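Morning run. Coffee first, then this:
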Amino acid sequence: MIIHIVSTVPQGNSLFRRALDKAIRITGIIPPLHRYGIDALIPWKKPLRSPHASSRNLLHHFKKLGKVKYYSLYEKGVIKLAPDDIFLGQIVPDGGFTYDSRPQTDDHASITSRTLRENPDNHNKYLIIPFANDKALWGWSKDIVENHADKVVLIAGEIWTRNWKDGVYPSLDLKNVVRIDNGIDPLEYPIIKKSFNKPENRKFLYIGHTAFYKNTKELERIAEQMPGFVGGHIGLGNVKGWKKIADFADLTPEFMTKIAEEYDIFVTTSSADAQATTIMENMCFGFPIACTPETGYEYPSIVKLDTTNTEANIKALTMLKNMSEPELKALVDENLKVIQKFHTWNTYVTTISDFMNLK
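And here it is:
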């Protein structure tokens, strides 16, 4: 038995490594250096951000359970599965992942698509999907999920398993589905937010891009209508009324310590996020969180926002802005308990392997 994992693979840390990987890919003389899951040959970074953190933890866990082969979801070709082989793969839309495209189907040349379609006699084929039950975002995946996978792992907030019959995969039997919470390693994201500015000086932080499902138009409405609003943005695209800090930044403790000196409260108003990893990261860093349930997070310690009700959002953010420092720290403490209870990598990987009947 071989466990075949198709997931994200980090790019090389140097020009030489990236050139070497490209040469191996073009020539095909030897397998990619990541194929057998040897850590020394995979350029893991620190801190390892999503989705590579999921890949590493799955790889390490499955190597304890059997022989593993590791593929990039952007590879082409097909895996010829033996009857007892197990396949766990991610899917790619036709044209790849872009912020504003609306693909119609999956990439039929991708290794996941071909392997699912060309191994009808193997019935151990699993998909793993960071899922929001939104047709505009995931409609392209309907055929391959409903007709070619044996079972499906959904990385998703509980909100996305409600109203199932009106969603993306109405004919998918929920007996063949498991929902899991996204994971994080708090040791890589230690508490760095240890004090807060005075209420009149508190600022808001958003980390993320501006694709339609991030719903940054609501962030713009908040900035326009909230008295005394000041916010900062890290990520691709522009959010009107929010100061652009950087297009991209490695969220190291050193970098975020500087951010925490100026900003106090993390905000996001996504309309269709599986479970935004930036929320977990900032929970661990010690920022109070205000977000919509559609980000995939609904906990008492998170201040609930709405995707369109700007007046209610301003009221909630004003409450946070004026909260006493002990009250803010109490929210932070509860958020850390949430991480330990629901979002550990051990829970993540064992839920998946149990679902796949791997012990």
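The chain has a mean pLDDT of 95. Good start to the day.
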